[in-house]
Amino acid sequence: MRLYDMFDQNNTFASQQQQQQQQQPTIRFTENNASSYLVNNGTSSTVGSGSPLGLNTDLNLEQILLELDRLIRTSGITTCALLPPNHDICLRMRQIPLIISQSITPMQTLLTFVEKVVYMLYKSNSTFALEAYTGFLQSLFELSREVEKETMTWIVYSNDERKYNAPVIAMLMRHEMIPLEDYDVLLAKAIKNPPHKVDYAVDLLSLCLLPSNPITLLEDHALTIAALREIYDKSDTSLLSRVKILLKELGERAKRPYISIDKREDLDCLQLRMLLAEWTRLSQHSMTSQKIYRQFARKVLRITKDKNGQSFFFRLCTETCLEHFLSFKSLSAAFQNRTMQLIDAYAKLVAYMIHVSDNNKEEEEELASEKIDIAARSFSVVILVLAQHHETRGMHFNQKAFLRILSSLYAELMNNQHHHYNNNNNNNNNNKKKKHSFSTLVYNGILRAYSDTLYTLQPTTFPGFAFSWLQLISHRTFMPQLLAAPTLLIGSDRRQQQQQEQKKQGWMICEKLLLELLKFLGPLLDRQQLEKATRQFYRGTLRFLVVLLHDFPEFLSEHYMVFVQVIPHSCIQLRNLVLSAFPRMMHLPDPFTPELLPMDHPKEGEENNVLSEFKQDPFLVTSYTKVLSAEFRGAIDDFVQIQHESFHIMSFQYMMDDGIYRPDVLGAFVLYIGSKTIIATYGKKNQEMEEQPAIIAYKRLLTEMSSEGRYILLNSVADHLRYPNSHTCFFSKTLLHLFATQSEELKEQITRVLLERLIVNRPHPWGLLATFIGLIKSPGFWDHEFIRCAPDIERLFDNVSRYIKRTT
After folding, report:
1. In terms of Cα–Cα distance, which of 346, 428, 435 is closest to 382?
2. Angstrom distance (rounded) from CA 138 to CA 155
3. pTM for the complete prediction?
4. How does DSSP assign 18-29, residue by residue?
5. CA Rg, the chain, in Å?
């Protein structure tokens, strides 16, 4: 289609577009007849003029367009943002699509009218007129994508000289109507080939890049700037003085954010940004070879030279990615993809820089350390930039950009290590083993650096990054890597590596990250009213723990005590989920089996009926004892051997802080003295429960504590009712013994602690079910007054009783 005869000279469209021209009528609208057409209200051979209705439609559109042009020229408004919605200009613009829809041939009428609007756009002299006509044109394009394609094809791809109007093109770019990458390629060619469009390019870049609020960014004009630099370097004519001024201004603007940093005369900020733009373009082409990628990465390493130069380059690239991400408020899908492509390209560049760095070094550990340091520097830069944005932007902090940067960096670094290891393998077994060892060393070092980054960005320090942080630590490519590799390599000393082989370093990292997650969530859940964001974050945490419970139950089972120390007692479902973990090779018996729990004094022949698992100690990390001082642990050890009265006074001093109970210390005390008692009573048959050191300490505390303290203590005991093991057996018998020997008030509290853990949604720990079933089967349980204290409570216990009777 020829949009204008005035712009139809040297028209070269693709063959597909020429086929469309044969199907659609040619619209002719020259400069001379256009002006007379609008001024004199004449009618040319436009579409729809063959009938009276079409003629009236065209006349109405012409009159409205003339009136619209007059209103725009005489309004005195400087920008469309100041235009009220009920202004006459807005009313005229809304009226035109209705008139077009009433035409006999609305598509052709729209094509004819759009050419007139484009003509008025190119004849506009004020910023408001440019903005008004561009916005109006954009609204007309929504009526027909075919019209939009035809119009923008002429504006971008035609060879007509008169289309080079910098203010018009800049306004179209502001409204995101021009494909920036394609236009950059075409303009770069127009600069290099006669007639050289240098002045037009300078005008366009000045309008787009130099205002206080730039319309576009440097990377959008990478090829154009490169073409201007090339012409400036090769020519000394006075006509290029404007190019020199433009390049100087662009260089100063690129350097301005880094004036406070130590000046590096050898690093050109504009050059570094152009390197990033060039790499982004390369990474988008599927035909780019690995050789080109490696050569470009080596070029970047040569330019940045040293560690400080690399850190500066990483910061510049990170802030450039953020600038692209935050520059546009309402992005179209195409602009969003361009932003994501820039971030992904930067991550890919870092991966290739790591791959090609110092490959000439002979020492394997030295080379691995160099590669790990590059990855760590890239992560450290993200931390520093995030901290600055988090502090300065406050409530307006945008975490999505940093989420994308960190996830892309991690994915590219991990994939790159696997890819190059597989490509470099050969048939030599010795060489293959050597490469595997080196690849593992680099892989684990990068994994450790990324883990340290996430630990530094914990939500307690950066609450604005909390949701993204939760997504990063729970990602399917990160957490399983740590939990599935318990012997994570740290450092370069192989002897140290062998010494720490059994310490499960990956699990320790996961423990730290999960602890920070629960520490951040705990205070939020203690509030009376939960905000929407808190509920969403809690739901995400719950789903994360469900995945760990399903895929890595041994991890939760061995670290459960560390986690429940920071989970508030009000978070019953979260606590139950952690306590429900058990080794995947274990088959849990039915908790409704009669006489499942061992009695204090089993009769002869009944000892064989006790589960063998009750005699096995569970695997348990001892880091929970950090809250207990060495002096207190020593006192507990002495008390297990010899019970003395002074211990009870000391225990109260450690468990309270300014008159407030410390649940973490109390929980650690319950487990520590209970486990020591289990060890001390091995082989001692017929020992009464009340004679055991832990039971003596528990009873003394329950006697002297307030109602709050007793509730915390009983919850701490219930925390160890898990899968069948020696701890579950001991603490289950402890609760049943306390229920049988203590006051009515304490019996009610024991029942409450167990019942409130059962009425929440599943999962429920096996030991909790078995203990509660044993409790309600105890003689005289249904005669207690607290069971009948309220109709709802009585109905609940009746339902439980009927269920128990059906299953036994």
Report:
1. 346
2. 14
3. 0.83
4. HHHHHHS-----
5. 37
Look up tokens 């001892």; give the residue.
622
477: its two tokens:
């490519």
| CA atoms in the 13 A half-sphere facing the CB of 30 | 6
778 vs 733: CA distance, rounded Å: 12
Angle between helices 31-39 and 106-122 (to 10 degrees): 100
Q: Distance (Å, rounded) from C-alpha 61 to C-alpha 63? A: 5
Buried b (16+ CB within 10 A) or exposed e, 195-231: eebbebbbbbbbbbbeeeebbbbbbbbbbbbbbbeeb
Q: Is the dihedral of CA 588, 592, 593, 595 positive or negative?
A: positive
Contacts 24+ apart (CB under 8 A), 37-43: 37/62, 37/116, 38/62, 38/65, 38/66, 38/69, 38/116, 39/66, 41/66
- H/E stretch holding 114 reads helix 106-122
Counting every residue, how long is the chain?
808
Please, what is the Cα angle at 461 between 460 and 465, to 5 degrees?
A: 85
The Cα 231–Cα 227 span in angstroms is 6
Sequence-separated (6 or more) residues with CB below 8 Å from residue 749: 707, 710, 711, 714
Alpha-carbon distance 621 to 598, whole Å? 26
Tell me how crowded residue 385 is: count the other CB atoms within 10 A of its CB: 19
For the ranges 151-165, 236-250, 315-329, which has the lowest average pLDDT? 236-250
pLDDT, one tens digit per residue, over 461-513 is: 999 999 999 999 999 989 888 887 544 444 445 444 543 453 478 888 999 99
Secondary structure (H, E, C), 345-402: HHHHHHHHHHHHCCCCCCCHHHHHHHHHHHHHHHHHHHHHHHHHHHHHHHHHCCCHHH
**pLDDT band at 783; cut points 50, 70, 90:** confident
Contact 674, 636 (CB under 8 A): no
- The whole-angstrom separation of Cα 488 and Cα 508 is 10
Q: Within the chain, how many helices (H) and strands (E) appear?
A: 35, 2
DSSP 656-698: EETTEE-HHHHHHHHHHHHHHHHHHTTT-TT--GGGSHHHHHH
The H or E element spanning position 422 is helix 400-424
| DSSP-assigned beta bridge partners for residue 660 | 657
Helices (H), 194-332: 198-209, 222-234, 241-255, 269-283, 290-304, 307-327
Alpha-carbon distance 772 to 765, whole Å? 11
**Can the peptide bond before residue 594 be classed as cis, meaning omega within 30 degrees of 0?**
no
**Exposure pattern of 631-661 as b/e (b: 16+ CB <10 Å)?**
ebbebbeebbeeeeeebbeebeebbeeeeeb
H/E run at residue 184: helix 180-192
What values do phi and psi take at 77, rounded to 5? -85, 140
Given the structure tokens 């901290």, which residue do they identify?
387
User: Which of these, 464, 333, 323, lies nearest to 387 by C-alpha position?
Assistant: 464
Look up residue 675 and give its amino acid: S
- φ, ψ (nearest 5 deg) of residue 681: -100, 5
Contact 568, 561 (CB under 8 A): no
| Interatomic CA distance for residues 733 and 728, integer angstroms | 8
Contacts of residue 324, Cβ cutoff 8 Å, sequence gap at least 6: 217, 219, 338, 339, 342
431 to 74, 259, 423, 436, 493: CA distances (angstroms): 80, 49, 13, 8, 21
Q: What is the mean pLDDT of residues 244-269?
A: 81
CA distances from 572 to 58, 90, 201, 753 (A): 73, 58, 66, 10
Distance CA 378, CA 47 (A): 61
Give the mean pLDDT of 91-120.
Answer: 89
Contacts of 331 (CB under 8 A, 6+ apart): 176, 339
With a pLDDT cut of 90, the percent of the chain lying above it is: 36
Please state, in angstroms and rounded to a whole number, the distance separating the CA atoms of residues 575 and 580: 9
